[in-house]
Design a protein that fits this description.
Layout: E1 8-14, E2 17-23, E3 31-35, H1 46-52, E4 57-61, H2 79-92, E5 98-103, H3 105-116, E6 121-127, H4 134-141, H5 145-160, H6 170-180, H7 186-196, E7 197-199, E8 205-207, H8 223-232, E9 237-242, H9 250-253, E10 262-267, H10 274-277, H11 279-290
Parallel strand pairs: 3-4, 3-5, 5-6, 6-9, 9-10
Antiparallel strand pairs: 1-2, 2-4, 7-8
């Protein structure tokens, strides 16, 4: 059996940051961009990319502050800046019309970008990418802006004094990864850990992401603006949800009504990381959705 050839590492520049992405080759095929979620990295898509690389030119970026991309000087990791980075990747690499699959934060970014440039996106898959349910957002917004800002200042001060946690070994970091998502197989957890840590000078290991990505803006991303972007999406849209996740049912709470050409798929025995928890089922769903666009 021929060994699987992994992706090549490449970089592009956005707002003076050197941002990393992996390219799985097959440049003559339609472009497919895979966008990870918060505190994750581009190699979390490897199992999906390996399956889709035969029919697609697969590219998976590390978001700013994540993986092997630059960290921001200061502390701002705004949603708008993440969207700009995605727009720059598509623009600089001439990927439009592009198909995008995004998970969590990456799913939200993908949907926002599809609403900004409807003609530049061929299809979009958002895995748990609609953000918190309306009830949770409404509860957050009950807090006056001065209280939200004061809370944000406190959280930023706490993060400023927080040093990256050090693990004595890969196995120790692996145990933390498994605790975060007990549904991962041992092989999945080890793969995600190996690609998710850097070795420090003293021989210990720390996660690659910047601790400041943990901060939430006191302004959030306006729910009205978000829905306005969703209404502008014209391409076929697939909304994937794990039935054991916290994100809520977009059909029941009305969010799915904002899309003109969307289908909602619920995946049993899956939590927030649907593409890890039920990989084969996820691949069947996605390949069926993407099928008529593949060469």
């Amino acid at each position: 059996m021929r060994p699987v050839i992994g992706p090549t590492s490449q970089f592009f520049v956005s707002q003076r940051l050197r941002l990393h992405y992996v390219d799985w080759g097959n440049e003559g095929a339609p472009p497919l961009v895979l966008v990870h979620g918060g505190r994750d990295h581009c190699r979390n898509w490897d199992w999906v990319a390996e399956r889709l690389r035969r029919d697609w030119h697969v590219i998976a970026p590390d978001l700013r502050g994540h993986g092997d991309s630059d960290w921001v000087t200061g502390s701002s990791y705004s949603f708008a800046d993440y969207v700009y980075d995605l727009a720059q990747l598509v623009h600089q690499k001439k990927l439009a019309p592009v198909t995008i699959i995004g998970h969590s934060l990456g799913g939200a970014l993908s949907l926002a970008y599809a609403g900004i440039d409807p003609e530049g996106v061929a299809k979009v898959v958002a895995v748990e990418g609609l953000g918190p349910p309306p009830a949770i957002l409404a509860e957050r917004m009950k807090m006056p802006i001065h209280e939200r800002l004061a809370g944000w200042i406190d959280s930023m001060r706490a993060l400023a004094g927080r040093t990256p946690r050090k693990y004595a070994s890969i196995d120790e970091a692996l145990a933390r990864m498994q605790a975060e998502n007990p549904r991962l197989t041992p092989a999945q957890a080890r793969h995600l850990t190996i690609h998710g840590v850097n070795q420090n000078e003293d021989g210990t290991y720390s996660w690659k992401f910047d601790n400041y990505v943990r901060a939430f803006s006191p302004y959030y991303f306006n729910a009205g603006d978000t829905r306005a972007l969703w209404r502008r999406i014209t391409c076929p849209t697939l909304l994937v949800r794990g039935l054991e996740s916290w994100v809520g049912d977009p059909l029941a709470d009305g969010r799915a009504d904002c899309f003109t050409n969307a289908r909602v798929v619920n995946v049993e025995k899956a939590g927030h990381w649907v593409h890890h928890d039920q990989l084969e089922m996820f691949l069947d769903i996605v390949t069926d959705f993407l099928g008529d666009h593949a060469p």
